[in-house]
Amino acid sequence: MELRRDKPLFDKKLVFQVTEDGNPESTETTYVFRILSGTQPSHIPGQTESLYYFELTDEQNSYFVYYFLLSEPNFPTYKRDQSVLVDFHDFPTNIIKLLESCLKANSITHGQLSADPATFMAKFHRNSGVFSIVEATAFKQTKYIELPLQLGDDNAIKMYLSSRLSLALRSNQRFSEEVDSLRFSLHEMTLEREASERRLYEFQTKRNAEVQELMANHQHELATQREKHLNERNEVETRHQQSEDHLKHIIDDVKLTYANYREESEKEKTGKAFTPSSS
Asked: Which residues pair with 61 in a beta bridge?
């Protein structure tokens, strides 16, 4: 028998209402329920037949294994006994829908019915191994489907443990490959970051040098302009001073000329005043 455990049709934790002989009260227990597809040798030599494998396990107890194998040739009998209306290949799909309804429901909490008018719940009878899905209402509980699980023998437990070990090893291998891939990606990212940091350092160094050069050129230009303006100012002041000196010299000359003129005029007037008149 070959089971596709790496591709389960259903593999989830489910809260069961567990009952047993001699105890009328049910208890809530979480089990893992799986639906697997697979094949096994047919009674016809050289051929195989399809099957569905239903498995109930407890994560807290590796030796707690219940299973039900439903092959395609045996399905008509089960279909008649359970009044199932779907064919073999649609059967697990409909079971999964009921299981999903059980997951969504909170049908019983400490013995109280939920507020929903109808909810689904999974039940398991520990002694007989019967697994069933029922619809619970305020009026009654209606059984939808029943799977006659049987307690796993040594071969079933070994097959389960071996399959889980293989699955764990494959998962570990996959995780190891993912870790290696992440490490490689991290190494590549580290190299890229270091290269980016080097490029950034080179850019900053070049930019700083350019800024320093621009600042030096600017300071030199400012000094040149200041010196030029100072020289021009000195030249203007010198020309202005020269102009003032020249103008002062002219004014002094004019004043001197005017003073000489007045002096000569006064002399002439004085000379005329003392000259004797003719007889």
From this structure: 58
User: Given this model, what pLDDT does residue 174 score?
Assistant: 84
- Collapsing DSSP states into helix, strand and coil, what is residue 201? helix
Q: How far apart are CA 14 and CA 28, in angstroms?
A: 10
Which long-range contacts does 244-250 make (Cβ < 8 Å, 24+ apart)? none
The enclosing H or E element of 156 equals helix 154-274
Count of H-run helices and E-run strands, the chain: 3, 11
10 Å CB burial of residue 245 (0-12, 13-18, 19+) is exposed
DSSP string spanning 209-221?
HHHHHHHHHHHHH
The pLDDT tens digits of the residues spanning 172-214 come to 888 888 898 999 999 899 999 999 999 999 999 999 999 999 9
pTM of the model: 0.60
> Is the confidence at residue 106, as pLDDT, over 60?
no
Q: Which residues lie closer than 8 Å to 64 by C-beta, 6 or more apart? A: 57, 58
